[in-house]
Amino acid sequence: MIAIGADRFRSRAAASPESGAGSGGHVDDIFKRLGIVESMVADIRVQVAGILAVLPYLATKADLKDEIGAVRRDMNDKLGDMDDRLGGLRNDMNDKLGDLRSDMNEGLSGLRD
Q: For the whole model, what pTM was predicted?
């Protein structure tokens, strides 16, 4: 059996960060990194909470499809109404134009006489 002296573990080399002994070495690095990870996780939690707060108000693809269909139906109804109105206006203008032609022809025939 080999005897190992206690002084071997108390040396400067044993306490260096490379060996992990002494002032904490690698453990200090791990705690530092863990602190960074914990702060990042806290930030992510805040972001996720914000997303979850907004999520119920966001539309799905199916919602948008339904809304787009409703808007298209409304627009088609309005366009149909406009076509009907324009057709009525066109008929009224043709009637008035016919009346104007008749009046002008009567006036011109009176001048010719």
A: 0.40
